[in-house]
Write the structure tokens for this entry.
Amino acid sequence: MIPVKLTEVLKNEGVVAIATLGQDGPHMVNTWNSYIQINNAGQILIPVGYMRRTEANIAFNNQVLITLGSRNVSGNIGPGAGFLIRGTARLETSGPDFDVVKARFAWARAVMAVTADSIEQTL
């Protein structure tokens, strides 16, 4: 289940870091809070433009770590809230989730659908 505080963070701009692990070791990419959507199943949907190494890593090992936050949302100890999400990812190039993302982001060639195993508020 997606915490209410996380949905508040997603309504405010901030950077998102996505870490994957492949045959060549760890890799990170960035995106923006405003690009992320949550589907009816509670999965985190992230548009994929380039992210070729991320795609290869997910094919090798589908575990991902995602951090995101916003200074504009009250956190645990003051201004700013942040989260660490651990989960599994898959890339989709068709289907309802892809269609929703593609409608917002014409440049998206895929959608990364992340099923969260844990969501921890870190700030």
User: Anything to note?
Assistant: The chain has a mean pLDDT of 97. The two ends are 19 Å apart (CA to CA).
